[in-house]
Amino acid sequence: MEFIFIAATFALGLCWGSFLNVCIYRLPRGRSVVTPRSACPQCGKMIPLYHNIPVVSWLLLRGKCRECGQPITPRYMIVELLTGAVFMGCYLHFGSSLATVKCAVLGFLLLGLIFTDAETKLLPDAMTLPGLAIGIGFSLLVPVNDLVSRIMPGMVSAAMRGAISWRIWSLADALLGAAVGASFLYGAAAIYLRARGVEGMGFGDVKLMAMIGAFLGTRLTVLTIFAGSLAGSLFGVTSVLVVWMKRRRRIAARGRPEVDARRRAWHSARIMLRYYQMPFGVFLGAMGLLSFLFGNVLLHWYWRAL
Ligand SMILES: [Zn+2]
Fold first, then answer.
1. What is the pLDDT of residue 245?
2. Do 139 and 173 meet the contact criterion of CB atoms below 8 Å apart?
3. How far apart are the C-alpha atoms of 275 and 244, rounded to whole Å?
4. Residue 142: what are its φ and ψ, rounded to 5°?
5. pLDDT digits (tens, 9 = 90+) for 81-107
6. How far away, in angstroms, is 79 Cα from ligand 1 center?
7. What is the Å distance from ligand 1's center to 40 Cα?
8. Residue 264: how many CB atoms within 10 A of its CB?
9. End-to-end C-alpha distance for the chain, whole angstroms
10. What is the pLDDT of residue 260?
11. CA gap 27, 131 in Å, rounded
12. Which of left, alpha, beta for 143 (phi over 0: left; psi -120 to 50: alpha)?
């Protein structure tokens, strides 16, 4: 019986992943996700329903449009499989509860934003702002159980404690999380702009972190920002190193002296460091979802280790 539930959440995730692909393609272009029906982006031919089955269709058509033969990005299949895996992971983690629904909704929104940011370097308001509202709404259904919920009830009189529902504290936790997430990113963006004279992070990242904060509460939001920055920096340093090594090898292969190759490779790496725009939302989104699932365990373990 349990196996049927797990398989069903995975299948449900595949279907939502299919819809998410439509959002990833259309929302940054400012188009409706409801109408018209799906069409091939190359030739514009409508895709019939029987070719719209998650994963199966992409494999059967071997990643090509049936009409024009143009390749269809494997992103379609990857997003469907990931959404299925995330939905299944939420169920395995939280069981049959509203927390599973909250987790799946957060996973759906974050996967959409991660792939949109990776492809277009945009985090559309059409995803982040409804996401922020949904996160705040969920705090009334599933306790956020963060700083406010833990500290405030001890600071008011017993009579007031009885009168105030946990939902009020939970709502305050979501609002505080959103405010902390947004101000951290806003501050970082302002410092970055001052220091380097180019915009490194946009307002999209600020709204993304407000959304994550509403779902996670303050402590896990701070953890998300910390882990996301760490992952992003590691990725940035690795990319620069890869460019440097490739460039050096290519120049050295032309028979130039080693010193010259090294100097010019370093020059290329510096140009890349200056102009490359890292999709920071990808790292914040991934770490936000991981924090929601495993952050409390990590923090608990960390406090005990101290
Ligand atoms: Zn086509």
1. 86
2. yes
3. 15
4. -120, 120
5. 999 999 999 999 999 999 999 999 999
6. 20
7. 5
8. 15
9. 42
10. 82
11. 14
12. beta
- 69 Cα–ligand 1 center, Å: 6
Question: Could you tell me the distance, in angstroms and rounded to a whole number, from the CA of residue 48 to the centre of ligand 1?
Answer: 12
Joined together, the tokens standing for residue 285 give 């989104």
pLDDT at 200: 61
Ligand 1: distance of its center to the CA of 36 in Å?
16
Helix axis angle for 166-196 and 125-138, nearest 10°, is: 150
Q: What are 47-59's pLDDT values in tens digits?
A: 887 778 888 888 8
Residue 198 has a pLDDT of 66
Question: Considering only CA atoms, which of 119, 109, 105 is closest in space to residue 28?
Answer: 119
Which tokens sit at 24? 């990833």
Tell how far the Cα of 47 is from the centroid of ligand 1, in angstroms: 9
H/E stretch holding 111 reads helix 98-120
Contacts of 62 (CB under 8 A, 6+ apart): none
Stretches in the chain below the pLDDT threshold 50: none
pTM for the full model? Answer: 0.91
- CB atoms under 10 Å from CB of 162, counted, come to 10
Q: What is the DSSP string of 181-241?
A: HHHHHHHHHHHHHHHHSS--S-HHHHHHHHHHHHHH-HHHHHHHHHHHHHHHHHHHHHHHH
Nearest to 6 by CA among 99, 106, 94, 105: 94
Taking every pair of Cα atoms in the chain, the longest distance, rounded to a whole number of angstroms, is 83
**φ/ψ of residue 266, rounded to 5:** -65, -40
Cα distance between residue 103 and residue 7, in whole Å: 17
* Rounded CA separation 95/263 (Å): 57
- pLDDT at residue 201, as a whole number: 66
Q: How far is the CA of 66 from the centre of ligand 1 (A)?
A: 6
The alpha carbon of 46 and the centre of ligand 1 are apart by a number of angstroms equal to 9
